[in-house]
Amino acid sequence: MALRMWASSTAKAHKLSCASKSHLSSAFSLSRCFSTVLDGLKYASSHEWVKHDGPVAIIGITDHAQRFQNESGTSVSKGGSFGAVESVKATSDVNSPISGEVVEVNTKLTETPGLINSSPYDDGWMIKVKPSSPSELGSLMGPKEYTKFCEEEEVH
Amino acid sequence: MTKIQAQNVGSPLMNLIKLRGVPILQQLHLEEKLLRTSSDNWCIINDGTDDPTVVMGISGKPAELIEIEPVLQDHMPVIKRFTGGGTVIVDQGTIFVTFICNKDLIPGLQPYPRPIMNWSSILYNEVFRGIGKFSLRENDYVFGDHKFGGNAQSITKNRWIHHTSFLWDYDIKNMAYLKVPKRAPEYRLARGHLDFICCMKDYISRSDFIDGTTKAVGSHFSLNSTQLASIEVPSNAEFTPSTRLLSKQELEAAALSQTDESSA
């Protein structure tokens, strides 16, 4: 699976608004569903993950989300949210789970967009954000809740 | 004035707009605006577009997808649209059908490309029942193994659009503006355009297709027939379309890169 990324320098100036629901949880490792869910991350119902790393938060899309972009030749572009991923026939907005200023965009994705598929939680990170309201992280889902959320979504 | 058809009272509301000959750029701007700023559900049918136009997907590269020299020579307009997908050439023989929906409109439908694609094929199965050998093949609508409908989508946080250009008829000479894409569905099997596509007119009349589609949509939703002029969106909705016409300069630059590649 390959993704092509379009990186935009204007991303650095973007202020982002929160798009999360409130779910508090304790974090522990679970990967019972088809998709991988990692410890130590927070999750949004729109399938983005957040890792709080000192003064910045790292954001990407989850393994669950990248599975549905499972067609070759995919691109990422900027849209109404902080960006979008493209599969063969569709663009899908990627929404920031937290508010803040984008301080870095993963430029590796321009040349190797397949990292979003092969390494969604590591090399496939999409943006780094300086959170404007760190308390928003507390309202995201932990791994257990997110796993359950994915399982319930896949049942329907 | 709007008219609610009571075919399916109690079902979710779908606003139906029927157009004829509206320029494709105007149609795409309307669709993008409704996707981004409306909270209603929309079905748009545009029966042909007056001027032949090349329409590429959001990440389309002219040098890879179109024969730029004849495009420039013949002043063929080239649009880059806001949805994914490939390149088509549209004209009066193209019929467009678009669905713009809230993601919770259809119970159990996950707002991802494949589930939406599959849902659309269920609807069109009703339209083409007993006509040809209709199916969804990878991401295309086909009769047998010949494509007559191409699809593209865009999915936002709470809504999605699925739009289709149906080849009711086509001008053979227009196909010469398109290259055979590097990325093609497996079932294409390296066939050229004319061996790969077919015309809907060999299977169904224009009016029967449009009436059949309207009926199929009406069997799933409560239809509210709406006129273009009466569409209202929130006054505070900020929107700038990303669908745009490529400039002559852009196409010339692409032609240059095409020449550089071929001489390398």
UniProtKB/TrEMBL annotation, chain A:
Residues 47-130 form the Lipoyl-binding domain. It is found in: Mitochondrion. This is Glycine cleavage system H-protein/Simiate. Gene3D superfamilies: 2.40.50.100. It comes from Dillenia turbinata. Keywords: Lipoyl, Mitochondrion, Transit peptide. NCBIfam families: PRK01202.1 (NF002270). Pfam families: GCV_H (PF01597). Belongs to the GcvH family. GO terms for cellular component: glycine cleavage complex; mitochondrion. Coiled coil: none annotated.
Automatic annotation (TrEMBL), chain B:
Gene3D superfamilies: Bira Bifunctional Protein, Domain 2. Residues 39-225 form the BPL/LPL catalytic domain. InterPro entries: aa-tRNA-synth_II/BPL/LPL (IPR045864), BPL_LPL_catalytic (IPR004143), Lipoate-ligase_2_inactive (IPR053264). This is BPL/LPL catalytic domain-containing protein. It comes from Dillenia turbinata.
